Amino acid sequence: MKYYILVFYFFICSFLSFGQENKDEVQKKLNEIDLYRKEIDANKENYVEVYDTKPIKNVELEERRWEAYVLKENAEKKLLLRIKYTEYAPKEIVNLNFYYKNGELVFGEYYRKLKQKNKKATIYKAVFYFENAILIHQKNNINLKLDLKTFLDEEKSIKRMFVLE
């Protein structure tokens, strides 16, 4: 009986330590991506940034518009580093931020703020981290039902506006 308990304890300890290593490895990758984002933002004057804004045609006849800041490595290359896209409507603001490394999406952020009469604004946020075009971490706030496919479809749609592929 003591032998079984000892073997069971050994398996549990090895399983828990393996899980810890995997968690530490993912956290290390997340930290590297965050550092990369900070470097791009801190050194944006070394790159070419394009700004564009347009009204959005809609059936509700509300005043809506979008604006985007697109950061590229240089004017000749189409290699994206960052897209900051925002849509403005009378009752909401939606921000989408994308960071790219070697042409691949490494980080994405979705932020939505709903303004309501006589109430505090509601904020929805989701964060996505990628490695080799594979999702390695996702964090949504509780009320947001945003799935990966919808987010990636938005990213492709926005990216298509600024890059001829």
Account of the 3D structure:
- The protein is an alpha+beta fold.
- It contains two helices and seven strands; from the N terminus they run αβββββββα.
- The protein has helices at residues 2-42, 148-162; strands at residues 48-55, 65-72, 80-89, 92-101, 104-114, 122-131, 134-140.
- It has a seven-stranded antiparallel beta sheet with strand order 1-2-3-4-5-6-7, with helices on both faces.
- A hairpin with a 2-residue loop joins strand 3 (80-89) and strand 4.
- The N and C termini lie far apart (66 Å).
- The relative contact order is 0.12.
- The model is unreliable at 6-19 (pLDDT under 50).
Radius of gyration computed on alpha carbons:
21 Å
Class of secondary structure makeup = alpha+beta
What is the strand tally? 7
Largest sheet: 7 strands, antiparallel
**What percent of residues are in strands?**
35-45%
List the strand order in the largest sheet.
Answer: 1-2-3-4-5-6-7
Average pLDDT value?
82
**N→C terminal distance:** 66 Å
**Discrete helix count:** 2
What are the SSEs and their pairings?
Elements: H1 2-42, E1 48-55, E2 65-72, E3 80-89, E4 92-101, E5 104-114, E6 122-131, E7 134-140, H2 148-162
Antiparallel strand pairs: 1-2, 2-3, 3-4, 4-5, 5-6, 6-7
Give a short synopsis of this structure:
The protein has 165 residues and is an alpha+beta fold. 34% of the residues lie in helices and 39% in strands.
Keywords:
single chain; 165 residues; seven-stranded antiparallel β-sheet; 7 strands
